Amino acid sequence: xxxPKIDRALVTHVAKLACLSLADxxxxxxxxxxxxxxxxxEHLNALDTSDVPPTAHVQIDHAPRRADELAPxxxxxEVLSQAPQVEADGFAVPAFVE
Amino acid sequence: xxxxxxEMSAVDVAARVQRGEVTAEHVAASALARIAALxxxxxxxxxxxxxxxxxxxxxxxxxxxxERLGPLAGVPVAIKDAICVRGVPSTAASKILGGYRPPYDxxxxxxxxAADAVLIGKTNMDEFAMGSSTENSAFGPxxxxxxTTRTPGGSSGGSAAAVAARLTACALGxxxxxxxxxxxxxxxxxxxxxxxxxxxxxxxxxxxxxxxQIGPFATDVRAAARLLTVIAGHDPLxxxxxxxxxxxxxxACGRSIRGLRIGLPEEYFAPGLDPEVAASVRAAVSELAAQxxxxxxxxxxxxxxxxxxxxxxxxxxxxxxxxxFDGVRYGxxxxxxxxxxxxxxxxxxxxxxxxxxxxxxxVKRRILLGTFVLSSxxxxxxxxxxxxARTLIRRDFERxxxxxxxxxxxxxxxxAFRLGExxxxxxxxxxxxxxxxxxxxxxxxxxxxxxxxSAGGLPIGLQVMARPxxxxxxxxxxxxxxARSPARGRLPAIAVGAG
Lengths: 98, 499
What we know:
The structure holds two protein chains of two kinds.
Chain A: H1 8-17, H2 24-41, H3 76-80, E1 86-87, E2 90-91
Antiparallel strand pairs in A: 1-2
Chain B: H1 10-19, H2 24-42, E1 45-48, H3 52-64, E2 76-80, H4 107-114, E3 118-123, H5 157-164, E4 170-175, H6 181-187, E5 190-193, E6 213-218, H7 221-231, H8 249-252, E7 261-265, H9 275-290, E8 294-298, H10 306-321, H11 347-358, H12 361-374, H13 379-403, E9 406-410, H14 426-431, H15 437-442, E10 446-453, E11 459-466, H16 471-484
Parallel strand pairs in B: 2-3, 2-4, 7-8, 7-9
Antiparallel strand pairs in B: 1-3, 4-6, 5-6, 5-10, 9-11, 10-11
């Protein structure tokens, strides 16, 4: 696949996916910087990896499993103590269903 | 003359507190006094514990009751701000976690408490551990105790600077792509990145989960090994934590290195490496050969691809991990400027404004990069490609470790660079991590131990890497070198005479 051009439209699209409301000046700056970084990443295309399996995680096959048992967790009041807004014993968010 | 409190290794502090020759309260008071006197020049601490003396008195009371004290009795330990401490600000140096006081301790913190350490404070860092200079911080930059116009490295720069200036005997950091080893190298301290899975990550604010690992900083190899022994071991709260027998890392420091095979990777001695750094590392390895080690050249042919591989994988994981900062459960919540004519107060406006206001530029850059490489149409070309390249980098090490027991290399291409020097060029900052990223991608243990001073008096670090779970051999080599290093006993001027 040819390298995509990192322009304002692409940065705006990706920012929307990432839930970042960027200022106009940020969009221009990130387009230029990400373009330079992705040009470096293109070096990976020099590698023939057709027969190479991906590594998602090192040593995950050795990770032990634990029994699925109930155990005490933090009290609700402790968990809610750090929330920006609490209502009705829960995290309060703006209405998103009419 | 008696050694001043602050010049003692954590091992000696613990022994003296255990024997009752000094109280934990005296040690803590002395550390607090040094922080008060010196940290305005360094900005290593983001928070100093207001209960440090209380913690210390509780340890003294325990001893007075005749109870046996733990291996870190009364030892002040500074904690990177990315590690959660119950009731204490833990913000990963980000505005988005401003005011956050976790309702729980990270597993490593619970283990430090059980070992009778004193949690002396939180240390400055690059926001969410994203950086190599501790300049990307909501608290402002940390300065290098050896030259305050220079960076202490990053992202665990506060922990490294605090130990280098002897504000604390030891510290915890975290290493995702070199964030313990590079600052240890820049500050003349000992820093260990353990094998991935050796130390539990529960309570570490996540950056890149397949790479993040907590590790110790100390003034000497033995003290770092003791801290590692305390924090290592299986934790049911971290599904990637390995259930392997603990090692006595401290006794490994006294092991003979005669007959060990040391690999020198030719790819690490390439153009771009400061000739003085190259000469120091080669001199150290020659000295180890004189001690009975066998030195061999090894090939790690995919080293050149590590930066690209890392910055795809780490940013992809970061973009996913940092999705949790949405203004709902903790930290900042904002809807943006209410006077703007497009101002809204709905959920998406809250997400967008909270994240745009709360995250700094480097974090946004990496979230964008990570979101891009995972996005529809690009996943195979970038993310999957980088995961395949990661396999090649792992295989390089597997092959090399058929022939050698440890690999010695520089930790960083240069000594500490100046504050501001690489700020305008993110790619130049990333390329500086070239010697620490491969071990992170392979998940192997690696550490930096002081190698030699540069002509200008700045520390240079020797990186020692070993097979997975073979921290013991790595520590034996590092301790043997430390005993002969021309850097031994050197302190930055700021640490001498004060306090």
